C-alpha cells in the first residue's frame, strides 16, 4: 500500500509541476502580448505620422510645387540654384528623424528622390543660364520636368504607401 501512495504522489507531483510550467508559460506569453500591444499603440501613430510627413515632403519637392512656392523673381541662375538646394535640404533635414519609423529601403528611395530632384533642377538651371531670365527658366523647368526625378518621387511615395499597408 505504501508503494501505491508513493507512486500516486509521484504522479501528482509530475502533474502539478507540468501544470505549474504550463501556467507560467501561458502567463508570460500573455504578458508579452500585452507589452507588444502597448508598444504598438504608441508606435503605430508615430509610424503613420512619419509616412504622412514624408509623403508631404516628396510632394513639396516636386518641381511644380517647389518652383511655384519659392520667390525667385530677379535671382541669378546661381542664386536660383542655391535657393532650390537650400529649400530641398531644409525640408529633408527637417524630416530626417522620420527615418526612425520607416524601413531602410523606403528611406533610401526618399533620399534618392530628393537628391535626384535637386540635381536635375540645378543641372537644368545651369543649362539655361544666360539664355533666358529667371521667370523663363522656371517656366522651362516646369515644362521640361526631369523624368528620372519624377519617377523616383513616385516610387518613393509608392514605397511609403506599401509600407503603411503592410504594417497597418
Q: How is this structure best summarized?
A:
The chain contains 6 helices and no strands. By secondary structure, it is mostly helical.
Q: How is the secondary structure organized here?
A:
Elements: H1 2-61, H2 63-69, H3 77-95, H4 104-128, H5 134-143, H6 147-167
List keywords for this structure.
single chain; mainly alpha; 168 residues; rod-shaped; 85% helix
Which structural class do the helices and strands define?
Answer: mainly alpha
Question: What overall geometry do the principal axes of the alpha carbons give?
Answer: rod-shaped
Radius of gyration: 29 Å
Mean pLDDT: 87
Helical residue percent?
A: over 70%
Low-confidence stretches: none
For this entry, what is the oligomeric state of its chains? single chain
Main sheet summary: none
Number of strands: 0
What's the SSE pattern? HHHHHH
Number of domains: 1
Distance between termini? 63 Å
Secondary structure tally, helices? 6
Note down, in words, how this protein is organized.
With 168 residues, this protein is mostly helical. The protein has one domain (46-167). The chain has 6 helices and no strands. The protein has helices at 2-61, 63-69, 77-95, 104-128, 134-143, 147-167. Helix 4 (104-128) runs antiparallel to helix 6. The relative contact order is 0.13.
